[in-house]
């Protein structure tokens, strides 16, 4: 997947240099497959890559072929400012060798997009959660400013309305998608603050 990563980076730089808000669908050849993609987003911001034509069998084949390469690319994309070491990655990468890793990953994404059934014993809990009940415990919402998955959403009343005891919302600069790994100090401070608030 190194070729894919380099291709995206180069095209992303070119698009921003040209001031384009959108690049037409293109393809990049990797050792595993040809990927169709387009880039969207503000020309001066972090690019948002949209992948096309990924049926489950293609996802499965790519993940079976290069679990560590794909996961490393995702780590870098999701948390672009995190300078993790090979040792840090390798400690987690051991789990990628589990026999059910690919099945679990594929099913997880299919389930969250309503394309696969969940565990039957949790159906009632899922049904209740789908109604978006208010969160009743004291809460602090943390967002990574450099989250490559979705970015930090704007501060809106709808988000605050989800909590009955909203204590704060913080956008953590220099952090991406893995806040507990990237900024454990911020996460632990927020937890301690909540513990004090509940005494």
Structure keywords:
3-stranded antiparallel beta sheet, two-stranded parallel ribbon, globular, 199 residues, 17% strand, alpha+beta, 3 domains
Please characterize this protein's 3D structure:
The protein is of the alpha+beta class. It folds into 3 domains: 53 residues, no CATH class; 78 residues, no CATH class; 64 residues, no CATH class. The protein is 44% helix and 17% strand. It has 9 helices and 5 strands, in the order αβββαααααβαβαα. The strands form 2 sheets. Strands 1-2-3 form a 3-stranded antiparallel beta sheet, with helices on one face. The longest helix has 16 residues.
Distance between the termini: 50 Å
Percent helix range: 40-55%
Total tally of structural domains: 3
Instruction: Work out the helix count.
Output: 9
Give the low-pLDDT segments: 1-24
State the order of secondary-structure elements, H for helix, E for strand. Answer: HEEEHHHHHEHEHH
Question: From the structure provided, what is the oligomeric state, counting identical versus distinct chains?
Answer: single chain
Structural class: alpha+beta
């Amino acid at each position: 997947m190194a070729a894919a990563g380099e291709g995206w980076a180069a095209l992303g730089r070119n698009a921003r240099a040209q001031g384009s808000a959108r690049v037409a669908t293109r393809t990049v050849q990797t050792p595993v497959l040809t990927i169709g993609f387009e880039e969207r987003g503000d020309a001066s911001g972090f690019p948002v890559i949209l992948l096309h034509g990924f049926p489950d069998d293609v996802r499965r084949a790519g993940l079976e072929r290069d679990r560590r390469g794909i996961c490393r690319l995702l780590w870098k994309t999701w948390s672009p400012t995190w300078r993790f070491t090979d040792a840090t990655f390798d400690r987690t990468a051991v789990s990628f060798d589990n026999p059910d890793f690919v099945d679990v990953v594929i099913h997880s994404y299919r389930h969250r997009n309503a394309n696969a059934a969940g565990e039957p014993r949790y159906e009632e809990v899922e049904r209740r959660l789908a109604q978006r009940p208010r969160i009743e415990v004291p809460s602090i919402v943390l967002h990574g400013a450099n989250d490559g998955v979705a970015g930090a959403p704007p501060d809106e009343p709808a988000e605050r309305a989800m909590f009955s005891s909203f204590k704060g919302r913080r956008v953590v600069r220099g952090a991406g998608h893995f806040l507990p790994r990237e900024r454990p100090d911020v996460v632990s401070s927020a937890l301690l603050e909540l513990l004090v608030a509940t005494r």
